[in-house]
């Protein structure tokens, strides 16, 4: 029964990412467009269990499309992992006459939504919001493109000082399990080597690569290291290794950190967020549930939440090769 | 005979766009990687006819990946449109022992390359570099993503002052024949209405839309106008029309202009340029000719130059609908 | 009687500028710090006459220090120029028990405040907020530094495309009566010539200068033109003049426009706004009235409003000379 | 004898800073303007001793005004601290017929220049280039303003994620001996507390301040910590302290690092660099020596190198107070 939905709720959960506000705005305005009521849930699943709700209209979300972070706040919730917690949430949604829920977040967020749906048959729809781009079923997660530009701008600045002093810099970027940020920003930042979680190239290759780069006349070098790189050493240990095993290098370390999560979203992320919000709401109105909306081949597509959670977002091997060639 | 190529040339032609330097760097480094010689041609086809060449190695292109414009300069050439002009170019390439040519530019550039190939059977490969995204055979041209961010940052600034004064702004963005920039930045900039060359929505709808927006409580409004909008009025005439036919508006005009062509390329454009350079050179080395490299479904693909020139790069109709819903 | 003040009001008026929100925040928080009540007045003197007030506390102004524009809106008011209008305003302030008024704006704003004070002996204090830096009694107005960076970023982008095509660009920047923006951004943007309202260098010198620049081997040129340049031609007429009287130039025009008024304020403007807000409130609390706070020799100083309005903010002649030398 | 100088040399030394290239450009162009020869020295005092020189003309420095770092490279030199080293340098300068030397750097750089002058009576002039603003005799060192903006943009991004998660962030900024960067960016970034080398406020006050901020309803907090803060704990120890001694905080640390040294210089730094280069060259031409050029009360002034080195660049106490009031 496609048109049973009269009122939707939207929340953000897990780590925040640029574009979440644009997605909230899109969900709210798409509801307004279809004359559906819409409420916002604060602090993710925590606020869902407590009934921390606010009625939204089209004007409630003005001037947020360009803001980083999430106006709805985000939080991790242990209680929502329990049966009792989810019952509370279900009761609060019922009391507020909410018929469907849009959750914006990463796989932890989707897992919660999936279990909640299985227990209460409550219609849910997911929007992938995380800078890591580690979700199956979408070529781009919300915030990924913005984070790439943030990282590249930082690398450009570091390169200014690196090349003024002929230094070697190890720069750590986000990515505990996947190397998307490292790989793309490494290419765009002109890095000599990129260390990612998917590949253990070994310290020997790193040393070889740096030596080759030096011989070829490069006066400074940048190595991008994903948080979860496979080489088994953290970025400070890498510095020590090079200090001890290679001569003639003035090695420095820079950990970019949480700055990568913030900032005004790029045009790409704002458009993507707007599209995803429309697709999520309209899919719920059409009677769909338990899906994540995603960008596949430049089109909005639905992927079952279960697949989105279990699937793997793979590194593009072509990019690895491009990176190798570029550091010639 | 795939491996006959020993020396390549690369040039940029037509309007410049961010990412051209990153593409030049990629062509040069891919040649170095495959131990192929590479020369740069200055000032597009003009320099080709004059033999304005420079030998490049991997180090010649350092520190340019993040620079806007093109270090090889660009120019339009009437002479290359003549048989005599192309003969000159062919002779210069022969004298320099060049076996293949990579051209970076738009459809004018590709047309020149195609005719040149047809006359002399000279291997050519195209890389689409233009901010307008108006080339068939690639979802993104080089520079398009950067231009989108440049425009959105300008809109954000204008919105600050628009909403401080409850003003209506008409903002003109590039796009003589296609509305890609207008459509994407209009959504991302939160515009009330977007006027593009592909669609004549008529002045009445514009007036309706502005009135509706005012009634709904919006205190300021932004209308994005592509240079070539179909409504048949330029942006200053639009202002006059609203001044005369609508009351209660303080209307201003802003023409963003050439600023949109410059700037340090985004991460996306740098990665795209790097991939395209690799693909262009390796395709020539594999014996291909007369193609344009492009991004289709996140993969590098070849499209015959003829198709790239004649084909149409179409507006995504889903975006038009998203734009309508967002301005609720 | 220094400590008679128990409640202050703050408003923004005239053209908006980056840093106005930071100044509002500072006024509100300084009131909170001194346990003084504070109300915000919306839409400048219009809102003052209508009693469009809102009580503010320290939390009311969170997250605005980095926002362009003014959350209090701005407007020009004809009615406040009349005796009746000012009486209305006085009555509204009395009804709300307001003892003093901080106005943020330019000389039009200060003139209104001065007359209001003269009629009702109502304590007023001015904060200079305008991007033009055209106020006597402060080395920097709020928003000037931010506007300089906005303009320079735009010039940098335009130079990318100018030098790719060997073009001559005329770029119009704000400054109807003073050339501060033109002069500073012209130096910082590497302009060949700078046309300002304070100086009529004559078309002949412009032509000479461009010819010299061309001979010296420059492949592209940028001329910065203040809106109110003395040469008596607008920027499009300048282009026509060069097109007709000089050969070998491909001339383009770019009018930067309202973009210059917006954007997140620079560090300098945020700190300046914070200092000015403190000084304005504390001066009122100390019994001062009818002054403008300003930055002189890196210190906060008071200048009588009358002087601020009548005085002239002069161009630094040293900068004119530096500009000449730099375009060698 | 004012006009004995026929040829100048310029070098950069010590840590690089944004604006150094603009200063090099200014030195070179001012020489060209006065028809004086000019050579560039690579790698600071190292290159001076080796004769690593390059003749410069006005065109040699095109397109560098907007580039971070230093095209002349920088290096620290132990050898120049020896008599033998300085003799080498003197001989190289003599061989090249150089009559005067402009050094761009910090107090280490100036100390070298001073001793060199004392030994050989060689005319030297200093330009203060360092982001720390720790030089006596100038209100602003080259690069300081740019670094402030870089830091504030990073804080803005971190605040997005901080306020989405109600977190407390400790952010480390540069400043081993002086708190200028911390103090200005702390105010501009809306920090709750600022820890600087000049002041030991003690852990108790930090704890108090955070508790007060929490009670007042703030949902997230940022504390800016200068590298050399007096509290005697590094930033990770601060985090541990709060984790152990305060409840209800989710504390994170971000070390901004070398990114702060790079980036395209702000308008302010480009203009300052242009003015300083002119003043340095013209002072040498007028027969002055052993001075540093500086900005005092918006004018170019000379300070004896000895004073510049020994003097103290003091924190503006007014800013400390403004910071306190703003975190109300």
UniProtKB/TrEMBL annotation, chains A, B, C, D:
Q: Indicate yes or no for the key word Transmembrane.
A: no
Q: What is its EC number?
A: 2.7.1.11
Supply the enzyme class, top level: transferase
A biological process (GO) annotation for this entry?
canonical glycolysis
> What is the regulation of this protein's activity?
Allosterically activated by ADP and other diphosphonucleosides, and allosterically inhibited by phosphoenolpyruvate.
Principal localization reads cytoplasm
Q: Per UniProt, where does ADP bind?
A: 25-29, 159, 190-192, 218-220
Keyword annotations of the record = Allosteric enzyme, ATP-binding, Cytoplasm, Glycolysis, Kinase, Magnesium, Metal-binding, Nucleotide-binding, Transferase
Q: Which residues bind ATP?
A: 15, 76-77, 106-109
Q: What does this protein do?
A: Catalyzes the phosphorylation of D-fructose 6-phosphate to fructose 1,6-bisphosphate by ATP, the first committing step of glycolysis.
Assembly and partners? Homotetramer.
Q: What name does the UniProt record give this protein? A: ATP-dependent 6-phosphofructokinase
What taxonomic lineage is listed for the species of origin?
Bacteria, Pseudomonadati, Bacteroidota, Flavobacteriia, Flavobacteriales
């Amino acid at each position: 029964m496609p048109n049973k939905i009269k009122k939707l709720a939207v929340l953000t959960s897990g780590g925040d990412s640029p574009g979440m506000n644009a997605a909230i705005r899109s969900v709210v305005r798409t509801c307004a467009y279809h004359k559906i009521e819409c409420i916002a849930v604060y602090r993710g699943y925590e606020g869902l269990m407590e009934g921390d709700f606010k009625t939204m209209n089209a004007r409630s979300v003005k001037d947020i499309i360009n803001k980083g972070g999430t106006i709805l706040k985000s939080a991790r919730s242990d209680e929502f992992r329990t049966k009792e917690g989810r019952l509370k949430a279900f009761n609060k949604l019922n009391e507020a006459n909410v018929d469907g829920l849009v959750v914006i977040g990463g796989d932890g967020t989707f897992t919660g939504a999936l279990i909640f749906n299985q227990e209460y048959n409550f219609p849910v729809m997911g929007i992938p919001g995380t800078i890591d781009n580690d979700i199956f079923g979408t070529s781009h997660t919300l915030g990924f493109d913005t984070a790439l530009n943030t990282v590249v701008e930082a690398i450009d600045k570091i390169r200014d000082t690196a090349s003024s002093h002929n230094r070697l810099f190890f720069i750590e970027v986000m990515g505990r399990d996947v190397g998307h940020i490292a790989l793309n920003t490494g290419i765009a930042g002109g890095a000599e080597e990129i260390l990612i979680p998917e590949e253990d190239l070994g310290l020997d290759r790193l040393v070889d690569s740096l030596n080759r780069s030096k011989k070829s006349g490069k006066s400074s070098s940048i190595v991008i290291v994903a948080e979860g790189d496979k080489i088994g050493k953290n970025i400070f240990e890498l510095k020590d290794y090079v200090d001890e095993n290679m001569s003639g290098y003035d090695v420095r370390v820079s950990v970019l950190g949480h700055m990568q999560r913030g900032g005004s979203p790029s045009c790409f992320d704002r458009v993507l967020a707007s599209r995803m919000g429309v697709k999520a709401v309209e899919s719920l109105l059409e009677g769909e549930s338990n899906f994540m909306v995603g960008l596949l081949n430049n089109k909005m597509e639905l992927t079952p939440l279960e697949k989105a959670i279990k699937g793997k977002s793979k590194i593009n091997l072509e990019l690895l090769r491009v990176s190798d060639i570029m550091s010639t």
